[in-house]
Design a protein that fits this description.
- By secondary structure, this protein is an alpha+beta fold.
- The protein contains 17 helices and 20 strands.
- A hairpin with a 7-residue loop joins strand 17 and strand 18.
């Protein structure tokens, strides 16, 4: 049941209002799932007991804390994954990164909870309703299961959320109505303290927090003193707030093994959507991604691909297109069970505001074209061509790595090349002898150059047309030998 109250918490004796988000199935939610998912469980390898299970598993009678043998007897086709704390920690950090843009003070609590200071954000959001709408909308789009609660103590918010109370309220009385009836078994206190408290008739939270702190200190250990003192606000609760990481890395475990590279499209796209959000919110672009494919029962255990964008990119759709072009030439060595993506080269992006009708669309298209060609053919197979101040045709151009296409299009080189209207679109690497009859239409244009570097030439160039209608660029040497040097389109 969800409650929502808009009253401000500034009347609660100066105590901050806290929101706790509990994610009970974070590793399970992180697995890349298909719509026809099978019963799936996450198992603690030490105790062989189930710690997380999906809806399909619950429908067949499997539940949390059940033994693996019992679960297998209920569902023979159950998928079993070992619990991995690092996966949950990474996913929790991703959630903290995304929520950091909506709420400033966030603390990562254990591996499956986020603690947020609500009081400091209500001035920005005007009221608790608007604040929770912003957070819940974002959480719903993240495709994770979560429970939530607010309280005027950290321990209170945690206790309510873990008991699935789902209360968003600033009303102290309403919060206490949810807290007080809870049994001590739900508090996370040690079994020793819970049994000791039961012997003196303390079984509920209301009874526990009613005890004087001095009496607790005389009869119980320091852990219980700290718990009750922080719960009631008599003791300060130390909080270390989270600072977002400036590096992007995401690991995704696949629900099923993938043996065909084309089936990697959907899981890659889900990662690239996180990458797009990471880059967009920081006004950054990425030039290179490191994509690692992890194999099952194979040596080496993984295969690494470098996806490049020479001019930087942040959009998930563009990175997916570049990745698919790269994957066309990749042969998987074994079935893929997991994927990770790391942003290797990230720079501040300079987003330019331009006229809708300005002639910059071609520049953007050229940059994207180069990135696609590099992805498909390889980084070293694509070059840019620029003019060189040399009259010899074979020395008038140079090849180099692609540069800033927009700057190249706006440079004086474009004007220089455009002025050479009598030059062919295709220059042959080596001239070859002209053996067919041709008709000369333009020329001669004499070129004498290169005497300084032992590659001197003396030629008379003509534009000619062959008997088949092909326009040719031909030249004549002083010995009256004729050669073809270029072809016009």
């Amino acid at each position: 049941m969800s409650h929502l109250d808009n009253r401000y918490p500034d009347q609660q004796q100066g105590r901050s209002l806290w929101l706790y988000l509990h994610f009970p199935c974070l590793q399970l939610n992180t697995l890349y799932q298909h719509l026809d998912s099978r019963p799936t469980v996450i198992v603690d390898e030490k105790t062989h007991r189930i710690v997380q299970c999906n809806t399909s598993a619950k429908q067949q009678g499997i539940d949390i804390d059940m033994g693996l043998a019992s679960a297998a007897s209920l569902a023979a086709n159950v998928c079993v994954y070992p619990y991995q704390q690092n996966i949950e920690q990474q996913r929790l950090q991703e959630l903290a990164d995304s929520l950091y843009l909506l709420s400033a003070d966030i603390c990562m609590h254990s591996t499956n909870g986020l603690l947020l200071n609500v009081s400091r954000m209500l001035t920005l959001y005007q009221n608790l309703t608007h604040y929770w709408q912003a957070l819940s909308t974002h959480l719903d789009s993240a495709n994770v299961d979560y429970y939530y609660a607010t309280a005027y103590s950290v321990n209170g918010a945690i206790l309510l959320a873990k008991n699935q109370c789902n209360i968003i309220s600033a009303d102290q009385h309403e919060i206490e109505q949810e807290l007080h009836p809870l049994a001590l078994a739900h508090t996370g206190l040690s079994a020793k303290n819970i049994n000791h408290l039961k012997r003196i008739g303390i079984e509920q939270v209301e009874q526990l927090i009613a005890l004087p702190l001095t009496d607790i200190a005389k009869r119980f250990d320091i852990d219980l003193v700290n718990y009750v003192g922080r719960f009631t606000g008599q003791l300060h609760h130390p909080i270390t707030f989270y600072q977002p990481d400036e590096k992007f890395f995401k690991h995704l475990d696949l629900w099923h093994d993938i043996s065909n590279v084309m089936y990697l499209e959907k899981p890659l796209y889900s990662i690239y959507q996180s990458l797009e959000q990471f880059l967009y919110l920081r006004q950054q672009r990425c030039q290179q991604l490191q994509v690692t494919l992890y194999f099952r029962d194979h040596h080496p255990p993984h295969q690494t691909l470098m996806i490049n964008s020479a001019h930087g990119e942040y959009r998930s759709s563009q990175w997916l297109e570049l990745s698919l072009l790269t994957l066309e030439s990749v042969t998987l060595m074994a079935p893929v069970v997991a994927i990770s993506v790391k942003a290797c080269e990230v720079d501040k992006s300079e987003f330019k505001h331009s006229d809708l009708f300005a002639s910059q669309q071609a520049a953007t298209g050229a940059a994207q074209l180069i990135a696609k060609l590099q992805a498909k053919l390889g980084q070293d197979a694509v070059f840019s061509v620029s003019a060189v101040s040399d009259h010899r045709p074979e020395c008038g151009l140079r090849y180099h790595q692609p540069e800033d296409i927009e700057n190249k299009l706006n440079s004086t080189r474009v004007e220089e090349v455009a002025g050479q209207s009598h030059r062919p679109s295709l220059l042959l690497e080596q001239p070859f002898a002209l053996t067919d009859n041709v008709t000369l239409h333009h020329g001669p244009e004499r070129i004498i150059s290169g005497w300084w570097d032992e590659h001197s030439i003396c030629r008379d160039y003509f534009i000619a047309r062959s008997a088949h209608g092909q326009w040719l660029w031909v030249f004549r040497t002083p010995d009256n030998d004729w050669f073809i040097h270029g072809l016009f389109s």
